[in-house]
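Schema walk-through. Below, the input block comes first and the output block second. Nothing else is stored per chain. Lengths vary across the set, and this one has 163 residues.
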Amino acid sequence: MTPAVSPKVVAPGEGKTVKLFGVRFRYKVESADSGGSLAAMEVEIPPRTLVKPHAHAREDEYSLVLSGTVGIRTGDRVQDAGPGSYLVKPRGVPHAMWNAGGSPATVIEIVCPGGLESYFEELAPILDRHGSPPEYYQLAENYGITIRDDWIEELERTYQVKL
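--- output ---
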């Protein structure tokens, strides 16, 4: 039986915030708010920033670009997505996003099922202490995430972005 959830309003600027590699994740709908079926986060990607390439084994990811333009690589396909664009990143398909522009880009990320918020919360202190140590990769593996470091150099060079 799915646990009962309560109605709530999360106003602009509200919600738990976690920063990873300079990218801000603000939780808007947590797993507990949806009975575990999804989580939604407002993600602000700073100018000239790459979100670390990865693939999920357990979640599908859907995005709505609110502001700015983001580059997106899903598998071998590369595209630009401006405000109003929706992105579908199915589980198992490697993907990366970046903001090659001069101002922040904002994206709503919906992850189904929910639960990935715990990963971000566990990851933040690891990154604050060490950057990308072995425990970073172990944590990703624990959550069914495969990091695609092999994409980073090409994406950084091609789009003039950095992690």
